[in-house]
Amino acid sequence: MPPALAAVNDFVVKFANVNGSGSASANELFARSILRMGVPVSPRNIFPSNIQGLPTWYEVRVTEKGYLGRRGGVDMMVAMNPQTWAQDVKEIEPGGYLFYDSTKPMPSSMFREDINIVGVPLTAITNATYADARQRQLFKNIIYVGALSILLDIDETKIQGLFGEQFKGKEKLIDSNVKALQLGRDWVTRHIDPDTVKLKVRPSNNVGNRIFVEGNNAAALGAVYGGATVCAWYPITPSSSLAEAFQSHCKRLRHDKETGKAKYAIVQAEDELASIGMVIGAGWNGARAFTSTSGPGISLMTEFIGLASFAEVPAVLVNVQRGGPSTGMPTRTQQSDLLSCAYASNGDTKHVLLFPEDPKECFDFTAEALDLADRLQTPVFVMTDLDIGMNHRLCEPFQWDESRQLDRGKVMTAEDLEAGKTFGRYLDVDGDGIPYRTYPGTHPTKGSYFTRGTTKDEYARYSEEGAVYVRNMERLQKKFLTAAKIAPQPLRYSSPKPTKHGVIYFGSTSPAMAEALDHLEADGNHVNALRVRSFPFSTAVEDFIHEHDKVFIVEQNRDAQLRTMLMADFTLDARKLIPVLHYDGTPITARFIAGDIANKLDQMKVVPFEKAAS
Amino acid sequence: MTYIAKPKLHHPSLVKNKAGYTRRDYEGAVSTLCAGCGHDSISAAIIQACYELDILPHQVAKLSGIGCSSKAPTYFVGASHGFNTVHGRMPSVMTGANLANKDLIYMGVSGDGDSASIGLGQFAHVMRRGVNMTYIVMNNGVYGLTKGQFSATADKGSISKKGVANSDESIDLVSLAILMGATFVGRSFSGDKHQLVPLIKAAMAHKGAAFLDVISPCVAFNNHAGSTKSYEYVREHNEALNRLDFIESREEITTRYDPGTTTTVQQHDGSFLRLRKLGEEYDASDKVAAMKRVQEGLAAGEVVTGLLYLDPTPKDLHHNLNTVDAPLNTLDTADLCPGSGVLDRINASLR
Fold it and tell me: Which fold has domain A491-604?
């Protein structure tokens, strides 16, 4: 028997449940109570594409240091699902803990010799207290939270405080939950030595003023602050909660105080084609509009994305990526839609992509995307994923500059037209590739034009003349270069020691990367890092690559999609860019990144011939 | 398509409407469709309708899909914005445009391939959402731009120019529009301007989903013997149920008809529609009867025309979404952005 794992504020607890059993809110309660003790946590839902009866897991990483990526490995398994028992037990680290419902005796073959077993007769306690089947099911979850709170030293008052907030004004519910919590606590106090489990939570002060929020919720709020008035969407995992959050934010924040009328329009469309069609129609007509979807939705929208790009109509698409291709892994995470979004459409087409790292940036970038789409008159993609979108993540609080105005880009008004300003819808007046537009209905005699997906000249007149076509395509390319300058710029993190090794990463890889960099540094592997935040790439990305001999590109897809895009945009030596790829549908971990990079660095070490021979 | 501009000079004697525009101000570029194409007659009827309605030309937004019919918006109301979208998807773009600015007049122009074949789904959904629009299908039963393939509205048994009989059932867009919840549904014939112009005017005044199926013969590919969408066939089989007079609310009703021969309906915008009976009793406000009569006509090989169904007090998409009176595209930062104080409270609730 290896020594029992001992740790304070640094361990992973995983709950194995059956979905539809009400476990989700109890597990979240567990995570939040630790957070309230000032200790950062990073929870992740691992759920099936199903409503009731299939296995679901909730993994909570308790992390004093604030490492919010998935760690990998499980220190304590709360095994509440007989269906996945064997797999769950296997996953526990040697010396770790198995917490289970010991109501029915189990043969020793069901356990492992090298782990610590903690049995609490949850069903027996529940059945002795509650007659109603639903109550038994729900309160069993609270009872195990109570039991764990004793074993792990979680402050009871924090849990009670959370009950008070959740069931505000419903005293009966508060009382019944507190009672269930107490049942678990009492049983453990009477029957188990609290030192059995050496994983402990101690009050700390490392949460600060950070907030705990899901990326989809944050992106929806960003759409409110960014001035979106039209949202058209079609339900698809893992993006549905984004449009629903937009609806609930708008209900609170966007109704006229006097008339009660809505300053927004949300349409659940018949499919993704119609969703993006509505967004484009609204954008064409001067309203800020967005849709939220996932990979298969992007596939369907592709024709329309080409139209919006070529006709130069603003549109914002939030793509909460999941595992592909096709239906793929609807409830697992990946960063595998970069190519399908960046180059969506027939013909030579490129689109602007933004890569938020967490909910804070989901908020920032969605608001920013609405400005960028108007400024660039083109579709802008916010490339989030299931890991950020559907998990609560600790992040910096949202901020809004009170003086900030919605930037509607180059729009000619009736006054401009009346003053005799030349209007050519596709005329590059300012040399940045971005033309001026007019909204329909602007002026009785001036400024009207025909919008189309066919080639046209600077004055929006249909033309298939080669020279006209080339001029337009070159202007669009120029506009794309403008985008690289005004989109969020990459962020650089330098190693304290000079090094010729670099790493490029983006999006939800961020927290795992931050931790991996610490591991690498501690092991003497010095690496400079660059977080790419948008496509087209800033020249700073090219500079970073040129500064290093080897650059690792960390991605959550099989085909090294970001690397492909870098190769397409810059003149680079392919051997220099080394892919580090994780794509099994689970969020990437620091252990994986640091391990893979360290291995690759080892392999690269050139052993002098004499040494090798001796 | 649009490169042939019309001279802007107008004859000084042209009569101006109440908005101060002549009929020619509602024209567009010179049509590049085939000589004799029914679509050009429909464009002319739209121009006439807009002129007579005293609409400010720039207050119209024209949207279309892909195909011969979808080229038509270039040929009318040149002072307005137009959007040639993608094949079969104009309805969604029009829905979005309408959401952005409820104050414009939305004219959707589509064809039978665009609406009944590739775009049937969006056609159905735009009707059931009650988008305030006039949706005109220039229906010739054939793909013109790709040279003569059957579309989904081609009647079963009709013969193509190459001599092939259509073995598929045809889709009747009028029946579908009524079923899907359109609140103004009519059918007409491009060769019958007297019937068509008032129908377009009434449809444009209608504050809901208005659909007009206009049979519009294709002189190049579907005007031969054996076609059921030819000029000759439609003239012979046209079964007009009523004649419509569109009377704006401010106009005095001057023409008198014998009692019992007309029905007058007031639309939500105040305009009056006077329906003159042509033979049989027909109540356009009875949805079930309308569907029955249209189906009887189809079974008998008739082209039933006229105002077929009308709900004079529709509730459009904006009503259902309870949107503010100001167009959404006019709302600014102060209207839309809740500000940093609210954000601080939201942050506090997330700790």
Answer: Rossmann fold (3.40.50)
